[in-house]
């Protein structure tokens, strides 16, 4: 049965390869009604609830069984499903990759991948198939009119990795698709300790302007900001070795058709639910007092708090720089015009010409400042904005660890209570009911003991994952920053070099005044 | 107590006024004191002229004394045909003072180093304003001393020599009111003058030119000022960025620490260069435009005075005609008319000379300043390139 291929992640059980004739899907349509949510608890990542969605993965499979899945938005399933909108496909865990989903893709050579049972080995394997993928988001195109209009972006993937069917392909996606992807990944991976890159932020104001059709500089800037942010988002996501292999990610990049993720809308019921959950989480976080036994975690948490603060401050300063540089550009342009008028008014010929030349130089310089402001924005400022959000995700992962700990502790407390109850039972004087009660309690205790063990395992697992993730994140962060800062500095160099050219061209004009 | 040494002054003498090299009367302001709002200038004179009591002496003067001198010259009829050098503007420390106040309010939000650096920037700005005002007062006096007629003015001599407080001689309230009234009449004159029929082509051209040029240069001055302010804002942003990078660096214990250090240092240096770009632009461009704006106003004033003289002459003509008609007081009317004409002719002749040399002066000053500004911009940009490229190379090699 395929179920065994999907053991809950914390269990370090073996799994086996899917044999050819095996049912690739555990009859999704049959299981949907009783779908267990792939809940936030680490215990049970059941793929059952997610059955319906897997099929669009196989565009060539046209069995009715799968076709109806696209309509399934599980309105009557437990609330968890509502948040999953069109249901994420099974999570890729380090222990048990959803072989059933991957097999058709990978085909012949990479069977070995399925026998791996540890994160490390998957990483090693990964280095064999070296990380070579480049995603670009381009050609923003307005589709439709009025308030129902939206922007469609072309997502082009160029890769030599065998994970993908082709080497060079493109699809059309809209913003809510990206949000949908993120929401799926977040629901699968955040609570087990993976740092899932956050999606770019929604902007009702920005989007409304675009919808209404305002073709001005600010709406162009908005679209460009978004396009660039989406590109960075995807690249960050695929850089994560585990996320790259997630079927939702692959589907997002490859499938021509993607069902609309309606539940990502801010004002949908799911959106409101999300906000409520967020608030509840915040309250819970304040009430959880965890006994941190691991100094590493304490130190890292402090480190990220601090980083958060500093990056926010830096971001604010850079935003101010962008604003001032734009002002400089505008003021320079105005001065250029004024100098031109002055030159016209000047009756000394040579001086008049020099003033006109000055006006021209200043006009070129204002364009230079405008371009520099753009570099300030798109390179420096946006980078910082991304990292402020990323750090948010990191903090979220730490919070999940606390929650996991809490759950474990709760189970333990419950177990303790039951044990006390059991002890008390010894002293009741209703012998006939005693045995029955004793049996009941024994059962409960056994179950709870299992839960406590599971809780401890979950906690250890998430702690381990976080350690790995944090080290990967930090490495990536340093690399990312360095690369972009170098680019940004080079843009500054270019601006200054242009300035030199312009002023050197002007100098002889000034000297020519007689 | 702030003093300015010779080399600084040489640099500061940006607004060239084509001073002649006549060393018979040398004036400078070697020292100035700033107390609250009041600036006390030490006016130092070195002279070989016998009209002065001593060959080398200094007196303390306030801004109001300069204004008194200027107004006294303007009101002297004999100088009606001259361009009176524009009065120096009042020392204005409002901008840096406001910023200092805001900085104090925002002190809590920044690190100690950030605050110190911002304070340093503001103190530098304060100093720059101070230097500017000293320079502009000095230039005023130097223009007077190099003018063949004005240098001999009695009030000028008193200003330079009189070792008591000049406020006794300064306008009392009544006079000030009179001055104010005069200014009001002058603006009415402007309207009057624009309408007058000009017989002389030269003056017709000058009038058109000066009126137009004045409004254009006023606009350019304002726009140049805004540009300079933006540069200063950017320099401030660099301070904040540098400080935050510094904080990040302090927290970092990885090899990345060195990179952050370099970056923080880079921004600190960039902001210094940016600050200099701003101040040089201000000195060479904004101040140039501002000075000549005021100078053009002075030239306009000359035209107005000439136009008034023309009106007077025309009125005297009318009066003569009337007298002839009535056969009464004819010799007085004739004399009056003759005098008016003489005054007008003298004024026109003098004005022509002044306006011609004014143009020459202006062209020379613009040339000098534009060249210097371009050279400084190049220098700063090259500096920036070196700093940035150095940092990029260091980061890449790390």
Automatic annotation (TrEMBL), chain A:
GO biological process, alphabetically ordered: early endosome to Golgi transport; protein transport
Record-linked PROSITE patterns: PX (PS50195)
Subcellular location: Cell projection, Lamellipodium; Early endosome membrane
Keyword entries, A-Z: Acetylation, Cell projection, Coiled coil, Endosome, Membrane, Phosphoprotein, Protein transport, Transport
Keyword Phosphoprotein among UniProt keywords: yes
Polar residues compositional bias, start-end: 32-53
Top-level taxon of origin: Eukaryota
Keyword hit for Membrane: yes
Role according to the record: Involved in several stages of intracellular trafficking. Interacts with membranes containing phosphatidylinositol 3-phosphate (PtdIns(3P)) or phosphatidylinositol 3,5-bisphosphate (PtdIns(3,5)P2). Acts in part as component of the retromer membrane-deforming SNX-BAR subcomplex. The SNX-BAR retromer mediates retrograde transport of cargo proteins from endosomes to the trans-Golgi network (TGN) and is involved in endosome-to-plasma membrane transport for cargo protein recycling.
Entry protein name: Sorting nexin-2
UniProt organism field: Xiphophorus maculatus
TrEMBL record, chain B:
UniProt-listed GO biological process terms: pinocytosis; protein transport; retrograde transport, endosome to Golgi
UniProt keyword list: Protein transport, Transport
Residue ranges occupied by any PX domain in the UniProt entry: 1-166
Keyword Protein transport: yes
Molecular function per GO: dynactin binding; phosphatidylinositol binding
Family matches, as InterPro entries: AH/BAR_dom_sf (IPR027267), PX_dom (IPR001683), PX_dom_sf (IPR036871), SNX5/SNX6/SNX32 (IPR014637), Vps5_C (IPR015404)
GO cellular component: cytosol; endosome
Record's signal peptide: none
Function: Involved in several stages of intracellular trafficking.
Similarity field: Belongs to the sorting nexin family.
Name of the protein in question: Sorting nexin
